Amino acid sequence: MTESTYRIQGATGEWEVVIGLEVHAQVTSNAKLFSGAATAFGAEPNSQVSLIDAAMPGMLPVPNKECIRQAVRTGMAIDAQINKWSRFDRKNYFYADLPQGYQISQLYHPLVGEGAIEVTLDEKDPDSAVKRIGIERIHVEQDAGKLMHDQHPTRSYVDLNRSGVALMEIVSRPDMRSPAEAGAYVKKLRSILRYVGSCDGNMEEGSMRADVNVSVRKPGDEFGTRTETKNVNSVRFVMAVIEHEANRQVDVLESGGTVVQETRLYDPDRNETRSMRSKEDAHDYRYFPDPDLLPLELDDAFLEECRASLPELPDAKRKRYEGELGLTAYAAAVLTAEAETARWFEALLAECGDQGMAKAASNWLISDLFGALNRLGLDIEHSPVSPKQGAELLKLVADGTLSGTLAKQVFEIMLETRQDPGVIVEEKGLKQTSDTGAIEEVIAGVLAANADKVEQYKSGKEALFGFFVGQTMKAMGGKANPKVVNDLLKKALA
Ligand code: ADP
Ligand code: MG
After folding, report:
1. Where does the pLDDT of residue 477 fall: very low under 50, low under 70, confident under 90, or very high at 90 and above?
2. pLDDT tens for each residue of 341-370
3. What is the pLDDT of residues 131-171, one digit of tens each?
4. 225 CA distance to ligand 1 centroid (A)?
5. What is the number of other CB atoms lying within 10 angstroms of the CB of residue 215?
6. pLDDT per residue over 257-315, tens digit each?
7. pTM score, two decimals?
8. What percent of the chain has pLDDT over 90?
9. Does any ligand 1 atom lie closer than 6 A to the CB of residue 249?
10. Which of 403, 396, 480, 478 is nearest to 437 (CA)?
11. Does the CB atom of residue 223 touch ligand 1 within 6 A?
12. For residue 234, is it left (φ>0), alpha (ψ between -120 and 50) or beta?
């Protein structure tokens, strides 16, 4: 869908949807934001809880430098202003999985200010519009614990493993105008976080979740009242929430009602949103600077170290693949969308030892390898074929040992046996032959057996040439060099 204008047709005319996302991303760090407790996913309940995370009286939080560093690096990756002076605030509310009775967050002076990311709606389409989505801020805060409920007997349990884990809250501007744009934004943001290594982006495990703010208006009008749907945990659901919520709001407005600013919950089973509570305002939380913590002050050396540790990011990489390697916009976008794919491709190219093979390598990776991984249900990190083996296969094609068809056969065997392509070619005798004597003999046989077609060809039915090529290749078990076959056939038929 390249469509950049998304409209809902109502009885009173067309409506436009306005979207802003607040993404919570769990910071990749071995320890929590203010304690030394571990953060591994899936541990025994309450096995990773320090006295600080359990809010024992008298315990004092100490910021974990690594968490701050990751948030700063993320800010730099989205081209944002990094605030050398920031501060933590208490956000007060009661919740059974929040033993402190408040969350330590940053309201007034966040660590990261204004930034932006660029999204492409359809990477297959080189003319697809690129849109810049503003990011208002990134602040750092603590996660809460988790409640679990039993039905028989009725009991509730609390697991504090997640309590105190560092989150980055990445707040976008209300710049998105369609479900597709919001989906592309979440994907791009996740890709950047993974490149940077500041969040694993794993939405199923809850490492990344979005609060989806949606309002509707007639094009050109002021922004309408928004609702916020909490904790949406997949790209598909983000898009479904917007679609659903925008249509619901149009229905409400067109039947003479008003949209209430409220917090809603998404139910993926029924694909609907339900009201959870009326929206609270910042003043309801009685925010105030946390007296247990000094302001954060970052020095230049720290900032320089953060910047120096950043990898080449997806946009820069994509442009380099197009410019330096001569790949198509589509191939460059596919290869750079995930850090792991780019890493694999670069290892493959390094093993080829020749940048001139970039196109062949990219084609093979995108169609053959991705096709196989798809079939096998594997990620590229778990590819049964290594970059070194892939490069060896490509080199056998480049030097004429294998035709494209034979290369596909060898690749299938590689997937099964994990053997090197050179070994397979030797063992199965899959080499393509350019032996002109042998090919000429086969051609003579083919022409003799099809004397009638040779007559037709000579009297002008040139389309039959392909038939002769096919017959010759078939007689040679697919192992003849197609270029040599073409040349020799032309000679024989002249
Ligand atoms: P709050 O602090 O109450 O959560 P913010 O002003 O911080 O409100 O905005 C939260 C999110 O809501 C941001 O991502 C912002 O882009 C989005 N947003 C604000 N106004 C609208 C609107 N009218 N329609 C859709 N999204 C909006
Ligand atoms: Mg908010």
Report:
1. confident
2. 999 999 999 999 999 999 999 999 999 999
3. 999 999 999 999 999 999 998 889 999 999 999 999 999 99
4. 10
5. 20
6. 999 999 999 998 888 889 887 777 778 899 999 999 999 999 999 999 999 999 999 99
7. 0.88
8. 81
9. no
10. 480
11. yes
12. beta
Using the mean position of ligand 1's atoms as its centre, give its distance from the Cα of residue 136 in Å: 10
Cβ 134 under 6 angstroms from ligand 1: no
Q: Which atom of ligand 1 is nearest to the CA of 279?
A: 3
What's residue 126's pLDDT?
67
| CB of 22 closer than 6 angstroms to any ligand 1 atom | yes
| Cα of 475 from ligand 2 centre, angstroms | 70
In the chain the domains, ranked by start, together with CATH numbers, are: 8-305 (no CATH), 312-428 (no CATH), 436-493 (1.10.10.410)
Nearest CA to ligand 1 atom 19: 174
Ligand 1 atom closest to residue 21's alpha carbon, by position in its atom list: 14
Atom of ligand 1 nearest to the CA of 224: 23
Q: Which of 181, 216, 226 to mutate to test the pocket of ligand 1 (most atoms within 8 A of CB)?
A: 226
Say yes or no: CB of residue 172 within 6 Å of ligand 1: yes
- Phi/psi at 407 (5° precision): -60, -40
213 within ligand 1 shell (Cβ under 6 A): yes
